[in-house]
From TrEMBL:
<dbReference type="GO" id="GO:0008863">
    <property type="term" value="F:formate dehydrogenase (NAD+) activity"/>
</dbReference>
<keyword id="KW-0408">Iron</keyword>
<keyword id="KW-0479">Metal-binding</keyword>
<keyword id="KW-0411">Iron-sulfur</keyword>
<keyword id="KW-0560">Oxidoreductase</keyword>
<feature type="domain" description="4Fe-4S Mo/W bis-MGD-type">
    <location>
        <begin position="44"/>
        <end position="100"/>
    </location>
</feature>
<keyword id="KW-0004">4Fe-4S</keyword>
<dbReference type="Pfam" id="PF04879">
    <property type="entry name" value="Molybdop_Fe4S4"/>
</dbReference>
<comment type="similarity">
    <text>Belongs to the prokaryotic molybdopterin-containing oxidoreductase family.</text>
</comment>
<dbReference type="InterPro" id="IPR006963">
    <property type="entry name" value="Mopterin_OxRdtase_4Fe-4S_dom"/>
</dbReference>
<protein>
    <submittedName>
        <fullName>Formate dehydrogenase major subunit</fullName>
        <ecNumber>1.17.1.9</ecNumber>
    </submittedName>
</protein>
Amino acid sequence: MGVRQWFLGWPVIRQITGDDPLGRGSAVRSARTERTVPRTAQADSVTRSICPYCAVGCGQQVFVKDGAVTQIEGDPDSPISRGRLCPKGSASKQLVTSPSRVTKVLYRRPHGTDWDELPLDQAMEMIADRVLATREQTWQQRDDEGRTLRRTMGIASLGGATLDNEENYLMKKLYTAMGAVQIENQARI
Protein backbone atom coordinates (compact mmCIF):
# COMPACT_ATOMS: atom_id res chain seq x y z
CA MET A 1 0.00 0.00 0.00
CA GLY A 2 1.42 3.34 -1.05
CA VAL A 3 1.41 6.49 1.05
CA ARG A 4 -1.36 8.03 -1.04
CA GLN A 5 -3.55 4.94 -0.68
CA TRP A 6 -2.86 4.86 3.07
CA PHE A 7 -3.66 8.58 3.41
CA LEU A 8 -6.96 8.20 1.52
CA GLY A 9 -7.90 5.40 3.92
CA TRP A 10 -8.03 7.73 6.90
CA PRO A 11 -11.57 8.06 8.28
CA VAL A 12 -11.48 11.87 8.17
CA ILE A 13 -10.47 11.88 4.49
CA ARG A 14 -13.18 9.30 3.68
CA GLN A 15 -15.67 11.47 5.57
CA ILE A 16 -14.75 14.68 3.69
CA THR A 17 -14.49 13.12 0.23
CA GLY A 18 -17.16 10.42 0.42
CA ASP A 19 -20.92 10.23 0.75
CA ASP A 20 -20.87 10.19 4.60
CA PRO A 21 -20.10 13.83 5.61
CA LEU A 22 -21.41 13.39 9.19
CA GLY A 23 -19.18 10.38 9.84
CA ARG A 24 -21.98 8.07 10.94
CA GLY A 25 -21.63 5.26 8.44
CA SER A 26 -19.16 3.93 5.92
CA ALA A 27 -16.60 6.74 6.47
CA VAL A 28 -15.82 5.54 9.97
CA ARG A 29 -15.94 1.81 9.25
CA SER A 30 -12.75 -0.14 8.66
CA ALA A 31 -11.83 -3.76 8.07
CA ARG A 32 -10.94 -4.03 11.75
CA THR A 33 -14.31 -2.55 12.72
CA GLU A 34 -16.07 -5.10 10.53
CA ARG A 35 -14.27 -7.97 12.32
CA THR A 36 -15.21 -6.65 15.77
CA VAL A 37 -18.02 -8.48 17.55
CA PRO A 38 -19.56 -7.75 20.95
CA ARG A 39 -18.31 -9.82 23.88
CA THR A 40 -21.86 -10.96 24.41
CA ALA A 41 -22.45 -12.27 20.86
CA GLN A 42 -20.70 -15.59 21.44
CA ALA A 43 -22.39 -16.42 24.77
CA ASP A 44 -23.95 -19.88 25.11
CA SER A 45 -26.62 -18.53 27.43
CA VAL A 46 -27.86 -15.36 29.07
CA THR A 47 -29.26 -15.49 32.59
CA ARG A 48 -31.18 -12.73 34.29
CA SER A 49 -29.98 -11.91 37.78
CA ILE A 50 -30.03 -9.23 40.44
CA CYS A 51 -26.98 -7.16 41.39
CA PRO A 52 -25.70 -8.36 44.79
CA TYR A 53 -24.35 -5.06 46.10
CA CYS A 54 -27.21 -3.18 47.72
CA ALA A 55 -30.92 -3.37 48.40
CA VAL A 56 -31.91 -1.51 45.21
CA GLY A 57 -32.09 -4.76 43.22
CA CYS A 58 -30.86 -3.63 39.80
CA GLY A 59 -31.41 -6.18 37.04
CA GLN A 60 -28.43 -7.83 35.38
CA GLN A 61 -27.85 -10.01 32.37
CA VAL A 62 -25.13 -12.60 32.97
CA PHE A 63 -23.52 -13.91 29.77
CA VAL A 64 -22.01 -17.42 29.98
CA LYS A 65 -19.80 -19.32 27.54
CA ASP A 66 -18.49 -22.82 28.23
CA GLY A 67 -19.74 -22.61 31.82
CA ALA A 68 -17.82 -19.41 32.62
CA VAL A 69 -19.18 -15.88 33.09
CA THR A 70 -17.89 -13.72 30.23
CA GLN A 71 -19.81 -10.48 30.79
CA ILE A 72 -22.35 -8.91 33.14
CA GLU A 73 -24.44 -5.99 31.95
CA GLY A 74 -27.53 -4.10 33.05
CA ASP A 75 -30.85 -5.68 32.11
CA PRO A 76 -32.83 -3.27 29.89
CA ASP A 77 -36.06 -5.11 30.81
CA SER A 78 -35.61 -4.43 34.54
CA PRO A 79 -38.27 -1.99 35.77
CA ILE A 80 -35.92 -0.93 38.57
CA SER A 81 -32.72 -0.07 36.73
CA ARG A 82 -33.79 -0.10 33.03
CA GLY A 83 -30.39 -1.42 31.92
CA ARG A 84 -28.25 0.82 34.10
CA LEU A 85 -25.74 -0.27 36.74
CA CYS A 86 -23.69 1.75 39.21
CA PRO A 87 -19.88 1.32 39.20
CA LYS A 88 -20.09 -1.52 41.72
CA GLY A 89 -22.75 -3.35 39.73
CA SER A 90 -20.80 -2.83 36.52
CA ALA A 91 -17.75 -4.45 38.11
CA SER A 92 -19.66 -7.39 39.65
CA LYS A 93 -18.17 -9.84 37.13
CA GLN A 94 -15.04 -9.67 39.28
CA LEU A 95 -16.97 -11.31 42.13
CA VAL A 96 -16.98 -14.59 40.21
CA THR A 97 -14.01 -14.35 37.85
CA SER A 98 -11.27 -12.67 39.89
CA PRO A 99 -8.16 -14.86 40.21
CA SER A 100 -7.80 -13.63 43.79
CA ARG A 101 -11.29 -14.91 44.77
CA VAL A 102 -11.10 -17.41 47.60
CA THR A 103 -12.95 -20.58 46.59
CA LYS A 104 -11.93 -22.88 49.43
CA VAL A 105 -12.55 -22.80 53.16
CA LEU A 106 -9.47 -21.44 54.90
CA TYR A 107 -8.90 -21.69 58.65
CA ARG A 108 -6.17 -20.23 60.82
CA ARG A 109 -5.83 -22.07 64.08
CA PRO A 110 -5.48 -20.08 67.33
CA HIS A 111 -1.97 -18.58 67.54
CA GLY A 112 -1.26 -19.96 64.04
CA THR A 113 0.46 -18.05 61.28
CA ASP A 114 -0.64 -20.16 58.29
CA TRP A 115 -4.01 -20.89 56.75
CA ASP A 116 -5.17 -24.49 56.47
CA GLU A 117 -7.72 -25.74 53.95
CA LEU A 118 -10.74 -27.44 55.50
CA PRO A 119 -13.56 -29.44 53.95
CA LEU A 120 -16.79 -27.42 53.90
CA ASP A 121 -18.64 -29.95 56.08
CA GLN A 122 -15.97 -29.75 58.78
CA ALA A 123 -16.01 -25.93 58.73
CA MET A 124 -19.81 -25.86 59.02
CA GLU A 125 -19.69 -28.25 61.98
CA MET A 126 -17.04 -26.08 63.68
CA ILE A 127 -19.18 -22.97 63.21
CA ALA A 128 -22.32 -24.69 64.52
CA ASP A 129 -20.47 -26.03 67.57
CA ARG A 130 -19.10 -22.56 68.38
CA VAL A 131 -22.45 -20.83 67.93
CA LEU A 132 -24.17 -23.34 70.23
CA ALA A 133 -21.39 -23.13 72.83
CA THR A 134 -21.41 -19.30 72.79
CA ARG A 135 -25.19 -19.21 73.09
CA GLU A 136 -25.09 -21.67 76.00
CA GLN A 137 -22.35 -19.73 77.83
CA THR A 138 -23.87 -16.28 77.35
CA TRP A 139 -27.60 -17.02 77.60
CA GLN A 140 -29.61 -14.69 79.84
CA GLN A 141 -33.00 -16.11 80.76
CA ARG A 142 -33.84 -13.43 83.36
CA ASP A 143 -32.32 -10.20 84.61
CA ASP A 144 -31.44 -9.39 88.24
CA GLU A 145 -35.00 -8.30 88.94
CA GLY A 146 -36.53 -11.52 87.57
CA ARG A 147 -37.81 -10.08 84.29
CA THR A 148 -37.74 -12.50 81.35
CA LEU A 149 -35.02 -11.69 78.81
CA ARG A 150 -34.37 -14.85 76.72
CA ARG A 151 -31.36 -13.38 74.93
CA THR A 152 -27.65 -13.73 74.35
CA MET A 153 -25.23 -10.83 74.23
CA GLY A 154 -22.43 -13.09 72.96
CA ILE A 155 -23.62 -13.25 69.35
CA ALA A 156 -24.09 -10.32 66.98
CA SER A 157 -24.56 -9.83 63.25
CA LEU A 158 -23.28 -7.10 60.95
CA GLY A 159 -24.48 -7.50 57.37
CA GLY A 160 -22.75 -5.87 54.44
CA ALA A 161 -23.67 -4.15 51.21
CA THR A 162 -23.50 -7.36 49.16
CA LEU A 163 -26.52 -8.86 50.92
CA ASP A 164 -29.92 -8.49 49.30
CA ASN A 165 -33.24 -7.94 51.07
CA GLU A 166 -34.07 -11.63 51.19
CA GLU A 167 -30.73 -12.56 52.75
CA ASN A 168 -31.09 -9.79 55.33
CA TYR A 169 -34.61 -10.98 56.16
CA LEU A 170 -33.41 -14.56 56.70
CA MET A 171 -30.42 -13.41 58.79
CA LYS A 172 -32.70 -11.29 60.98
CA LYS A 173 -34.98 -14.29 61.52
CA LEU A 174 -32.04 -16.62 62.26
CA TYR A 175 -30.28 -14.33 64.73
CA THR A 176 -33.53 -13.38 66.46
CA ALA A 177 -34.38 -17.07 66.85
CA MET A 178 -30.93 -17.63 68.41
CA GLY A 179 -31.61 -14.84 70.91
CA ALA A 180 -29.21 -12.23 69.53
CA VAL A 181 -30.23 -8.60 69.89
CA GLN A 182 -27.34 -6.85 68.10
CA ILE A 183 -28.38 -7.23 64.45
CA GLU A 184 -27.23 -4.44 62.13
CA ASN A 185 -26.70 -3.91 58.42
CA GLN A 186 -24.72 -1.50 56.28
CA ALA A 187 -26.49 -1.57 52.91
CA ARG A 188 -25.40 1.71 51.39
CA ILE A 189 -23.28 2.15 48.30
